[in-house]
Design brief:
This protein is α/β, with parallel strands linked by helices and 368 residues long. The protein is built from 15 helices and 15 strands.
């Protein structure tokens, strides 16, 4: 079962799941959902929640109608509602001894590699600390031109940058049907989709039972991002009690299978577009280690060229300055200048603080 095999799981909750048509917050549902999360944590999984509801809860608090809101007004409303949203989550989850943190992202944070890598580190550190990040778009800052607007695509980017194995989109339908199940009795739930072809796109456009911000269309867009990031994605019914347990037990949902492996996708992302900021010249011993699939350690570095920060894209050259690989540096050029040629157990002494031992991790490196 896909969910069982996943280590890092992103779960997106839409506002229609959290708040009913009468604008009542579905607290009981959220408390049950927290049990699902507790189960996943007990299985040592890393969880990220992406939750909508800032604008809906802001409107509720201010007694305003969500429809026809001007963008600047909705930005202020989101600022009021986001705190309501987090209070709600915190109250319910802390009663189950689940620690939460908050991350508000803008489109740029996920599209720019430097910021995305930084966000990835923050996620990893939160997992280590035993906290679940609750992510939403930074609606109070993002304007129309620089906005996702829907949390489906935001969630898929979060899944991509966090290196998640699976994205769960909790929707108000079971998944994607061959035809609208409310109108056609013989319509069938599509269990697995490998290829998003024109037929699937057509079905998604016609699907009218989903009435979240994005509808089925943005879920398909999210699926495309996941497929190219090596991440599984599932659309499942979030209106049910214990929705995650239901996916595991009943599997009445639509799965989108990835097209590439997670590692290949990440490596491709590493070497695409942005030009390298610096170079590391390494000795033969290090080249041999890299050939065996090992990470680059400080001991094998002979020289650093250029000025770069932690997380920057760099070239790795052999002693004859021939390019061997590209990768993301886990240290700044300044730091590498201090630790080059040294054994990893000296890093703490040389820098004065604890850090990673690999200068370029094997998963962050691509041979040329
Ligand atoms: N970020 C918006 C909110 O929290 C919702 C976006 C969506 O519904 O997908 O209100």
């Amino acid at each position: 079962m896909y969910l069982k095999k996943s280590k890092t799981i992103v779960i997106k909750i839409g506002s229609t799941i959290l708040i009913d048509e009468k604008r009542t917050v579905r607290k009981k549902w959220l408390a049950e959902f927290a049990k699902d999360i507790k189960d996943l944590l007990d299985q040592k999984k890393n969880i990220i929640l992406v939750s909508s509801g800032a604008i809906a809860l802001g409107c509720k608090k201010l007694n305003l109608n969500k429809k026809n809101l001007k963008i600047d007004k909705s930005q202020a409303i989101a600022s009021v509602g986001q705190i309501e949203l987090m209070n709600l989550f915190n109250k319910i989850f802390s009663s189950k001894k689940i620690n939460l943190s908050q991350i508000l992202l803008t489109l740029e944070d996920t599209e720019q590699r430097r910021r995305a890598i930084n966000a990835k580190r923050t996620f990893e550190n939160l997992f280590e600390l035993g906290f679940i990040p609750v992510v939403n778009e930074n609606d109070s800052i993002a304007t129309t031109e620089i906005k996702y607007g829907d949390n489906d695509r935001l969630a898929s980017r979060v899944a991509q940058i966090s290196g998640a194995d699976c994205l769960v989109l909790l929707s108000d339908v079971d998944g994607l049907y061959t035809q609208n199940p409310k109108l056609f009795k013989n319509s069938k739930l599509i269990k697995e989709i490998k290829n998003i072809d024109t037929n699937i796109e057509k079905i998604a456009t016609k699907s009218i039972s989903e009435h979240g911000t994005g509808g089925m269309k943005t879920k398909i867009e999210a699926a495309k991002i996941c497929q190219l990031s090596g991440c599984m994605m599932v659309i499942a019914n979030g209106l049910l009690e214990r929705p995650i347990k239901k996916i595991i037990d009943k599997n009445k949902c639509t799965w989108f299978l990835p097209k590439v492996s997670k590692l290949d996708a990440r490596k491709k992302w590493i070497i695409s577009s942005v030009s390298p900021k610096g170079e590391l010249i390494i000795d033969d011993g290090a080249i041999n280690a890299l050939k065996k699939g090992k990470s680059l350690l400080a001991a094998g570095i002979k020289k650093v060229e250029g000025k770069f920060n932690k997380g920057d894209h760099i070239k790795i050259l052999d002693k004859n300055f021939k390019e061997y690989a590209r990768g993301l540096s886990s240290f700044s050029s300044e730091e590498i200048n201090k630790i080059q040629g040294q054994h990893s157990n000296k890093i703490y002494e040389l820098l004065g603080y604890i850090s990673k031992s690999e200068v370029v991790h094997k998963d962050d490196m691509v041979e040329i």
